[in-house]
Design goal:
The protein is α+β, with helices and mostly antiparallel strands. The protein has helices at about 1-10, 15-20, 100-130, 145-155, and strands at about 20-35, 50-60, 65-80, 80-100. Helices cover about 35% and strands about 35% of the residues. It has a 4-stranded antiparallel β-sheet.
Length: about 170
């Protein structure tokens, strides 16, 4: 069965060579920080803090087919006007991306690579917040495809967004 699928893809011997490929070479924590400016002055009677999530990403070419994608996740918790904590993680990955045209490469870098990195970043945020003495509700999954589609729609309507895919969501 697997041989049949391989034969169908590469029947003329060129299909396998032209097929696009994404592989993860390395995933690592590039940077992280935790600040708790309002930890001692927190008032539990005010209920759960307001949690704000910001995302950003950078896409850097390392060589012909290797790229570093850095996903930045920043979580800010406020209790009223006071900031309870700020946790930030820069989760990075080195990806081998071969056989993609420019449009496909942008899609992979802005959708598939962050989908790989986000669970790692989410775990690091949870660990930082817990180590800081706070309860952190689980960060929900994110539709990076939806974010990318929204950016593309903004670009088509003439709104300015960074060309490298960086920004907040």
């Amino acid at each position: 069965m697997a041989e049949e699928n391989l034969d169908a893809v590469g029947a003329n011997g060129q299909g396998a060579q032209q097929q696009a490929q994404m592989s993860i070479q390395h995933v690592f924590l590039k940077d992280c920080s935790f600040e708790a400016p309002g930890a001692l002055g927190g008032d539990a009677s005010q209920g759960q803090p307001d949690i704000n999530l910001n995302l950003g990403q950078r896409f850097n070419a390392m060589d012909a087919d290797r790229y570093e994608v850095v996903l930045t996740v920043t979580v800010t918790a406020k209790q009223g006007e006071k900031t309870a904590f700020i946790a930030e993680v820069h989760q990075s990955g080195v990806f081998l991306l071969q056989g993609f045209n420019e449009q496909q490469l942008a899609y992979v870098a802005n959708v598939h690579c962050p989908n790989v990195l986000y669970p790692y970043a989410r775990a690091q945020i949870a660990a930082l917040v817990t180590a800081g003495g706070f309860f952190m509700p689980a960060l929900q999954p994110i539709s990076f495809e939806g974010i990318y589609s929204q950016r593309m729609a903004q670009n088509q309507s003439g709104e300015a967004t960074p060309a490298d895919g960086s920004g907040t969501a």
